[in-house]
From TrEMBL:
Descriptive protein name: Thiol-disulfide oxidoreductase LTO1
Domain Vitamin K epoxide reductase: 74-214
Annotated membrane topology: Multi-pass membrane protein
Naturally occurring in which organism (per UniProt): Camelina sativa (False flax)
PANTHER family: VITAMIN K EPOXIDE REDUCTASE DOMAIN-CONTAINING PROTEIN (PTHR34573:SF1), VKC DOMAIN-CONTAINING PROTEIN (PTHR34573)
Bias type Low complexity, positions: 57-73
Length: 374
């Protein structure tokens, strides 16, 4: 009769066999039969104590060092954002100071004033000074990149959305900078603004950094939004500048005959003594007849004291296109007006009398002696 069904565990299949009683209990010889039951054709795979999944036991292809290198590269990129954003903040902060106070850097050699661009109608957008807007945008880029580097974005913003926000911000800045360069070359022809060019360079650098940071597949998802953003920026600036008036070229086409400037303020005994002292030690003031800052510097001394100064006029024959600066000024390396050279030290711009006294070694005792002589 049929005995029990035996299972073999060494392989993942089963087979059955019949076991018969001893020969003494049966009249026929012992025989072995394999059951004629058909089994489905299944692949045979021997099991072992090792995991069935070969992937679990295989060594990982990614190593901690590779992920660390990616993290370091990303952090380095955001550090560049922070550095460039910080430089942009310094640049626009200085321009904001010049715009708000009405100040200007010392006059360029080519004629005109350095504030042509800042004092034009194009230096504000809907009444807001353009440098202020730039300062805010650079501050936003700096703060956002610092948060992305620390992976600690506020309001639960994901890192992907943070990168998209940074990409959108730099796109707007680059679009605005491209438009401003167009304005500078067409509406403000003949004027130059080094600080504006530096700001534009930083904006484009930030845009290309963000373009590299965002993957190509991600760019395809937001390219339409970026184009719309750029169009909105350009359209807004165009609307703001619709009534702006271009400024004429100051250095390319005009011709300025030489003229003498009149000093209206009177001199104090201290100013007269200081002017005589500066003359005695060989201090020189270099200027140009059309430079308003040179006139303001002389007004600080007054009529009597200004006559005692060792003043060098760098354009004694007037100015027109192609006129060369006086050789004495060129030899001294003069790049702007007014420029003081005191004891081989170069000072640019309007200088307070107290600072001139300190730089030249003029003491109060000398001033008192001058007062007594008078």
């Amino acid at each position: 009769m049929m005995a029990r069904f035996v299972s073999v565990s060494s392989c993942q299949f089963r087979f059955g066999f019949f076991e018969f009683p001893p020969p003494s209990l049966t009249p026929y010889p012992r025989r072995f039969e394999v059951s004629s039951r058909r089994f489905p054709a299944i692949p045979i795979k021997c099991s072992s104590s090792e995991p069935e999944n070969g992937e679990d036991s295989a060594p990982s292809l990614s190593s901690p060092s590779s992920s660390s290198e990616v993290s370091t590269t990303t952090s380095s990129t955001y550090n560049w954002y922070t550095v460039l954003g910080g430089i942009g903040m310094l640049d626009t902060a200085y321009l904001t100071y010049l715009k708000v106070t009405g100040s200007d850097a010392f006059c360029p050699i080519g004629g005109g004033t350095c504030g042509d661009v800042l004092n034009s109608d194009y230096a504000a957008v809907f009444g807001v000074p353009l440098p202020v807007i730039g300062f805010v945008m650079y501050g936003l880029v700096t703060a956002l990149s610092a948060e992305l580097a620390e992976d600690n974005l506020p309001f639960g913003i994901s890192k992907t959305n943070g990168r998209f926000a940074l990409f959108g911000t730099t796109t707007a800045m680059a679009s605005a900078s491209a438009y401003f360069l167009y304005i500078l070359s067409t509406k403000l022809s003949g004027s130059s603004c080094l600080y504006c060019l530096v700001s534009a360079f930083i904006s484009f650098s930030l845009f290309f950094l963000s373009l590299k940071d965002v993957k190509l597949q991600e760019i395809k998802q937001v390219v339409g939004l970026q184009i719309c953003l750029a169009i909105i920026v350009v359209a807004s600036l165009t609307a703001s500048y619709s009534t702006a008036q271009p400024i004429p070229s100051r250095s390319g086409d005009i011709e300025l005959p030489y003229f003498r400037t009149e000093i209206t303020s009177s001199s104090s005994p201290y100013a007269i003594a200081l002017a005589k002292h500066l003359n005695s030690i060989g201090a020189r003031m270099y200027g140009a007849f059309w430079c308003s800052h040179c006139l303001e510097q002389k007004e600080m001394f007054g009529r009597e004291a200004a006559k005692q100064l060792n003043y060098v006029e760098c354009f004694p024959d007037g100015y027109k296109k192609g006129t060369k600066i006086l050789k004495a000024c060129a030899d001294a390396g003069i790049e702007g007006f007014p420029t003081w050279i005191i004891n081989d030290q170069v000072l640019s711009g309007e200088i307070e009398l107290a600072q001139l006294a300190e730089m030249s070694g003029f003491s109060l005792d000398q001033a008192n002696e001058a007062n007594q002589l008078q």
